[in-house]
Amino acid sequence: MAQILALSGQLQMNITITLTNAIPKSANMWSSVFFKKNDKGSAKTCAKFRVFALKYDNSTINRLEKLLNLDITPYTDKIIAEYIWIGGSGIDLRSKSRTISRPVEHPSELPKWNYDGSSTGQAPGEDSEVFLYPQAVFKDPFRGGNNILVICDAYTPAGEPIPTNKRYRAAEIFSNPKVFAEVPWYGIEQEYTLLQPNVKWPLGWPVGAYPGPQGPYYCGVGADKSFGRDISDAHYKACLYAGINISGTNGEVLPGQWEFQVGPSVGIAAGDHIWCARYILERITEQAGVVLTLDPKPIEGDWNGAGCHTNFSTKSMREDGGFEVIKKAILNLSLRHKDHISAYGEGNERRLTGKHETASIGTFSWGVANRGCSIRVGRETEKQGKGYLEDRRPASNMDPYIVTSLLAESTLLWEPSPEAEAVAAQKLALNV
């Protein structure tokens, strides 16, 4: 097969021109297509196809792409490790690269590193060094080969976790013997919205106007219903390549909004996998020229928000008689509702209105198969008498380290007073 530069799908032009004289006006007007050579009148090559490369500005269009796709594995044992950490806002991701002398499989094989915390809002300029501790390793779907993505958390030079390091506290909770013995499982449903880069308006929406009302877009198919599928599919495959425990994807209710699910993951791994999946999604949207937002209410009005529903179960919940354990967990969660809401994401009050498949932010509720409750229990869990619960309160921009560890703490380590428990049990009984 031979490669020729042809007009992209966005341009409709009828031209007749010889290849030797063809010069595109700009590189982004052209995309690559493949064609089979004619048997007659074409030059013979060992590959049986002839490559034609259109040129502009004295360079070929695909030169940079070739370098980006260059496989260095046959030539060196060295690899590139992309160190990834969470910035000062608690939701922004940062990363930088370093060369490692050989392939590695475990974060303990990697060196600690540092960065300028004054440039990420995490340290003062006069004492700006923040140290990165490698915590989880994933394969790099962008560079391929033995190259890796490294999820890190951040510490002061004295070895103290900085305030935005939420992983450290989560790891403490998950290492508690009582929590560890219950093998907490998490399935996290990460919703996100794709925006047009210049106008910050959802992908597929008319600029300055609205599409048709919600209804046909959820899991929809078609050019007038599905916007951004290629990004979702590219992300799905990249996560599988990286070793992320991604379990599915779907188009969401708001047009231009998508969801991916990660899990079941045990303990601290749930947070590591979500953060790495978010990083990969940021990189893919960066390459696509599309803006990613995790805002919990990207469009005001009669439109669904974006959540990060967190499914949770313990060993006791998954065994016979687990439904009673689930109800006890829900009781504890009701008593700590304000603590959870305060930690479940910035701007969540714009999403949790009691409309659009949410519960009101100020009221705790639970129900079977009810997506308008704070906590939903599935029909199958009720039928089997064991299973899991779904916390529908977390916003799309929540920190998974905080949410997963808080669920474990509230249901496995925290004990209410008998009086508070009795009052809560009565309220919840009336709520069902």
TrEMBL record:
<dbReference type="Pfam" id="PF00120">
    <property type="entry name" value="Gln-synt_C"/>
</dbReference>
<dbReference type="GO" id="GO:0004356">
    <property type="term" value="F:glutamine synthetase activity"/>
</dbReference>
<comment type="subunit">
    <text>Homooctamer.</text>
</comment>
<protein>
    <recommendedName>
        <fullName>Glutamine synthetase</fullName>
        <ecNumber>6.3.1.2</ecNumber>
    </recommendedName>
</protein>
<comment type="similarity">
    <text>Belongs to the glutamine synthetase family.</text>
</comment>
<dbReference type="InterPro" id="IPR008146">
    <property type="entry name" value="Gln_synth_cat_dom"/>
</dbReference>
<dbReference type="InterPro" id="IPR014746">
    <property type="entry name" value="Gln_synth/guanido_kin_cat_dom"/>
</dbReference>
<dbReference type="InterPro" id="IPR008147">
    <property type="entry name" value="Gln_synt_N"/>
</dbReference>
<feature type="domain" description="GS catalytic">
    <location>
        <begin position="163"/>
        <end position="432"/>
    </location>
</feature>
<feature type="domain" description="GS beta-grasp">
    <location>
        <begin position="79"/>
        <end position="159"/>
    </location>
</feature>
<keyword id="KW-0809">Transit peptide</keyword>
<keyword id="KW-0934">Plastid</keyword>
<dbReference type="GO" id="GO:0005524">
    <property type="term" value="F:ATP binding"/>
</dbReference>
<dbReference type="InterPro" id="IPR036651">
    <property type="entry name" value="Gln_synt_N_sf"/>
</dbReference>
<keyword id="KW-0150">Chloroplast</keyword>
<dbReference type="InterPro" id="IPR027303">
    <property type="entry name" value="Gln_synth_gly_rich_site"/>
</dbReference>
<dbReference type="InterPro" id="IPR050292">
    <property type="entry name" value="Glutamine_Synthetase"/>
</dbReference>
<keyword id="KW-0436">Ligase</keyword>
<dbReference type="InterPro" id="IPR027302">
    <property type="entry name" value="Gln_synth_N_conserv_site"/>
</dbReference>
<dbReference type="GO" id="GO:0006542">
    <property type="term" value="P:glutamine biosynthetic process"/>
</dbReference>
<keyword id="KW-0067">ATP-binding</keyword>
<dbReference type="GO" id="GO:0009507">
    <property type="term" value="C:chloroplast"/>
</dbReference>
<keyword id="KW-0547">Nucleotide-binding</keyword>
